């Protein structure tokens, strides 16, 4: 006899000749539905080895499962939304049809645009941070340019003290994150007095 503890976590379904393996939790998600009742009756009878046969359209059942898993579904253009609605009714699923969309329709496009916006914001922040680090390196180079030998760091004794300079920032360093730039300059021994879109004013901090 099958008990609650021994019920399998995965159920096999044969829908119109198409085999599916579905978690029990997914099928029981819609209480009172034909699917929830069907698997419950099967376990009561103790017959859990053979797939449960359902004489319906196997291809449309895929979209029924998608809805049960995510509470929304995107249909390809080849699938009629009314046909899917009939499947919901057959299985006793009270589906919110406002969450059943054409895959390439307005709702899907809106969600794609929102994902793009989030990605672009993240990319913008990363670029601004990278530009700030690059700008701090350039500022250090320009600040002591008159003392530099190529590829050789400026010796500490040659650095003027408490000297202020306003340095133009090339376009390739824009946009930049001001707080990151301030932190990077502090680590390089500078105090940032002001930073605008195309320049930064810094002074060499006392040692």
Write structural notes for this entry.
It comes from Fistulifera solaris (Oleaginous diatom). This is BTB domain-containing protein. The structure is a single chain. The chain is α/β, with parallel strands linked by helices and 207 residues long. The chain folds into two domains: 10-102, 2-Layer Sandwich (Potassium Channel Kv1.1, Chain A); 128-204, no CATH class. It has helices at residues 24-27, 34-45, 58-70, 81-90, 106-143, 178-187; strands at residues 10-15, 18-23, 52-54, 73-75, 100-102, 164-168, 190-195, 199-204. A hairpin with a 3-residue loop joins strand 7 (190-195) and strand 8 (199-204). The N and C termini lie far apart (82 Å). Mean pLDDT is 84; it is low at 147-152.
List the SSEs and their pairings:
Blueprint: E1 10-15, E2 18-23, H1 24-27, H2 34-45, E3 52-54, H3 58-70, E4 73-75, H4 81-90, E5 100-102, H5 106-143, E6 164-168, H6 178-187, E7 190-195, E8 199-204
Parallel strand pairs: 1-3, 4-5
Antiparallel strand pairs: 1-2, 6-8, 7-8
Helix pairs in contact: 3-4, 5-6
Protein name: BTB domain-containing protein
Domain BTB: 9-77
InterPro entries: BTB/POZ_dom, SKP1/BTB/POZ_sf, T1-type_BTB
Major pleated sheet = 3 strands, mixed
> What CATH architecture of the largest domain would you give?
2-Layer Sandwich
Q: Helix fraction?
A: 40-55%
> What is the H/E string?
EEHHEHEHEHEHEE
Low-confidence stretches: 147-152
Shape: elongated
**Strand order of the main beta sheet, please?**
2-1-3
By DSSP (H or I, 4+ residues per run), the number of helices equals 6
Gyration radius (Cα, Å) is 32 Å
Number of strands: 8
- CATH homologous superfamily of the largest domain, by name? Potassium Channel Kv1.1, Chain A
Distance between the termini: 82 Å
| CATH T-level fold name of the largest domain | Potassium Channel Kv1.1, Chain A
**CATH class designation of the largest domain:** Alpha Beta
Q: How would you classify the helix and strand content by structural class?
A: alpha/beta
Overall pLDDT score? 84
Q: How much strand content do the residues show?
A: 15-25%
What count of domains describes the coordinates? 2
